[in-house]
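A common beginner's mistake is to predict each chain separately and then try to dock the pieces by hand. The better habit, illustrated here, is to supply every component at once so that their relative placement is modeled jointly.
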Amino acid sequence: MSHSVELQNVGMAFGQTRAVTDVSFTVEGGEFFSILGPSGCGKTTILRIVAGFLDPTEGKVLIGGRDMKGLGPDRRPTAMIFQSLALFPLMPVWENIAFGLEARRVAKAERRKKAGELLKLVALEGLGDRMPGELSGGQRQRVAIARALAVEPQVLLLDEPLSALDLKLRQHMRAELRSLQKRTGVTFIYITHDQSEALAMSDRVAVMSDGVLQQVGAPRELYDNPATPFVARFVGETNAIAGKVTAIENGLATVESAFGPLSGRVGDGLSAGSAAKLYVRPEALQHKTQGENRLTATIERIDFEGAFALAHGRLEDGSLLIASIPSTELGKAPEIGTRAPFAFQNANAVVLPDG
Amino acid sequence: MAELYRRFGGGLGTIFLALVAAWLAGMVLAPNVMMIDYSLRPNLPPAEIGGSRDVYSLQNILYLANEGVHRAIFFKTVWASALVAFVTLVVCYPLAYWLAQNATPNQTAIAILALTIPFWVNEVLRTLAWYILLAFRGPLNALLLALGIIDEPVRWYGNTGVLAGMTYAYILFMLFPIYNSIESLEKSQIEAARDLGASVWRTHWRVVIPHAKAGIATGCVFTFMLAAGSFVVPALLGAPGSRWFTEIIYNWFFEGGDWNRGAAYALVLLVLCLTVVLVTLKIARVNLTDVAK
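With all components supplied together, the output reads:
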């Protein structure tokens, strides 16, 4: 079993600027853990703190239960894959991969052998004598992974390594990273701003915003039960409808909105009488006239996305409503320019305090 | 050239080309051709110039080959210049690395300003400052005596003085090429090396130095050429035991009155410098256009 990583009340300030505030979470050994957030949210700072490039100004980092304070990146059981990959351009591929072993004074024959094995693991057999500049983007990616795995790390830290690849290759590499992680059993901490990447690959995801940890959970949990308005908006598409909480009972909250009473599941920190927003996903909205939570929107356009289409409409107060229509039901979709009724079930919406 | 004509038109373009050609012919080609011409002819009284004894020969160059003292000074100048280049490299590399990778923009600006200001002063005056610093009863000896590091003043003039003076005089010629080449190194490469467990030494040896090779070679070539051709520093900070080849050349011209022999000596120095430059660049696999940049 690989080492776990534990962050305890980690904070980081650069002079007057606060990058990370009071972040605590535990990554289990052998887990594929993602940190998701928009650029500038502090996720890369967290990764660099775990790697040992930065000393947190507050709190501590434990890897495998051991406090990492005072240990530099060269003395931690972690290996990092940089956003730019940072392959050494003047060394052939095999020397790149074996660089960590060279630093550990492993004999040359042994290094060559190990590099060969790793090249096989990442399906690049026979390319050891090429220079990194002669490889394609996806191949360089794999060299970077092999180089990091060569030092047999307990924890692999990945800083948006797929961001430079085109969509097809990115999807392919996602699957490959995932299977590589399962095969090697190494703990992965993966940084990304791409929510679909995080949801598709990870066992668990931590969502961050402005240096603050918003929520940690399995992808399904984040999507279905967002703990904060930020998570509701950032993870997947959603519609937000403002109002005032009139009643809370049986785990359901009723919000008095401009379009009448609407209800959904009660979110964290909600109290009766306070301002709140109800969040409902586009796929939870159904085009029908019956049902308890009804909204009427003027359809402006319908974007065909393949498996489904997104209907963009305006509510009476001018705010936007997005509803998803499965492609198989496009025949029954509302006409553009007409006023169309939508309804959703209580269980498919969540009410969170406004803020 | 086509670009030049396209941009400035026929008239102006031709004028620019003519100016460059005149510069090259008058300032570069002609003096060198004259030097070669002088060096291959004997030193004759004015009446005999153009006479029957005025024929081309290698006599002047062979004189240097057979003159033991001059020959020794020539080789000493070669290796001492190489030593100057090496010492300057050792001094500049850490500084260039720090400036290029670790310093904040403010620190870089201040450090570069501090390094550049002395160069607003003439080289003779800068060397004179070292002349004062290194004097037998000068500030350096006074300081070392006061600290108890030495018991009696040291005579710095000579090899030590020349080495110190030259290293100081040519620091910028080494610093800037190395700084430029290290600056283009992505910081994550250094971090990656460290993350993979490499020591500081290995990171430099395997990652930074290979990347900065062109800059290092350029700096060394500059420094070597300037050192080998330097006159002021050895003249001021040297001692009779540390004579530089340029001083011998000077003597042939202004004291020996034998311009031909002086020209021959200068030609030998020029050929040597060219050889060193080309060999160094060959070893470092850098071509001349890279150096010019």
